[in-house]
Design a protein that fits this description.
alpha/beta, Endonuclease, Chain A, 8-stranded mixed sheet, about 35% helix
Length: about 350
């Protein structure tokens, strides 16, 4: 073989090697880029199996994402959801995928944080007074997941809770009617005195919800455990807690330490007031190893009744916002919430 041919082959060999290196690097870069563009909580969500979920179950923190994914992946006909804040996320991408497969997906929100436009039916609803703040999902008109988290929540850096109910068509119909009305821009009187369903009594605010929770607090005999993002004064829930404390009922609350305007801790005033009456009230950063967004909205009364939903314990939540509250008397569900509450200390 002559020298020119050998030189040419070596040249082409080097070019081929360079091309292979470039291709390999490109594949690695694209894979790395794809992984880095995953949403913060996406890698942390394990898959759930059908047989692992009972008719009802309580979930906390990063488990919330597992349930949301499970419901979306197993939807056969429809996914309908309500949230306060919405933004693009791994769950939204999954909803878009299901919509392309022919599943009817409809989401209503109180606020679009990133102004993105999803590939399914979507509407943002605003009120002159208050905000649209419910957080729940209905799948196939029978399975319900009511949670404290928004569709913009980073589940790896926030603390939330949720309750899954399966095969509950009566409650599902009420929640689907709520989504349809909100989607049309209507905030209707729904369950003004509470609707009795398979999941307990459903309330929407404004209405009688806060008065009924006040009465539950007032009738407590032993203890009230509560975890809530925002706690303010001058509304019926505070009145109920006052009545309970006068009877020497143990009131133990955990609230978020978030900072509002003028660098003020929003929950500080209510915390100080309730402590002066004998309640035990702690900021989440004083008892948790990290300082997550403590976004719960639940209370357990006497270890047998649990109150959960989307409402913070505020006057706005009671009188102006659109919220969902559920009062459930299943002691097994109450036990799971109380067990979680105790695990925080």
């Amino acid at each position: 073989m002559d020298k020119k041919r050998i030189t040419a082959l070596r040249k082409y060999g080097r070019i081929e090697s360079v091309i292979l290196i470039i291709i390999s690097f490109s594949i690695y870069y694209l894979a790395t880029l794809s992984d880095s563009q995953k949403f913060p909580d996406e890698k942390e969500i394990p898959l759930l199996k059908e047989e692992s979920l009972p008719q009802y179950a309580v979930f906390f923190d990063e488990e919330i994402g597992s349930v949301q994914n499970f419901l979306a992946l197993n939807a056969q006909r429809s996914i309908k959801a309500a949230t306060y804040t919405y933004s693009d996320s791994s769950l939204v991408r999954l909803y878009e995928k299901k919509a392309k497969e022919g599943i009817k997906v409809k989401v209503v929100a109180g606020r679009n944080r990133d102004n993105s436009t999803p590939g399914f039916s979507f509407s943002v609803i605003e009120q002159e007074r208050g905000i649209v703040h419910p957080k729940f999902t209905v799948v196939d008109s029978k399975d319900i997941f009511i949670t404290s988290s928004n569709m913009s929540s980073n589940l790896s850096t926030s603390s939330n809770s949720g309750v899954l109910f399966r095969d509950v068509p009566v409650a599902a119909k009420i929640l689907e009617e709520e989504i349809s009305a909100l989607f049309s821009g209507n905030i209707e009187k729904r369950c003004p005195h509470g609707c009795e369903t398979e999941i307990g009594t459903i309330y929407f605010t404004p209405g009688s919800a806060c008065r009924n929770v006040r009465d539950l607090f007032s009738k407590a005999e032993n203890r009230i455990y509560g975890a809530v993002y925002t706690l303010t004064l001058r509304h019926p829930l505070i009145t109920g807690l006052k009545h309970a404390l006068k009877k020497d009922v143990k009131v133990n609350l955990i609230v978020d330490n978030w900072i509002g305007r003028e660098n003020r801790k929003v929950n500080k005033g209510a915390k100080r007031y309730l402590k002066s009456l004998g309640a035990e009230v702690e900021f989440d950063n004083n008892i948790l190893p990290a300082d997550p967004l403590f976004h719960h909205k639940f209370a357990v009364v006497d270890g047998k009744t649990v109150i959960f939903g989307s409402m913070n314990w505020t006057a706005s939540g009671c009188y102006r916002n659109r919220e969902i509250i559920v009062v459930n008397n299943n002691p097994s569900i109450a036990k799971e919430f109380e067990k979680y509450f105790n695990s925080l200390f």
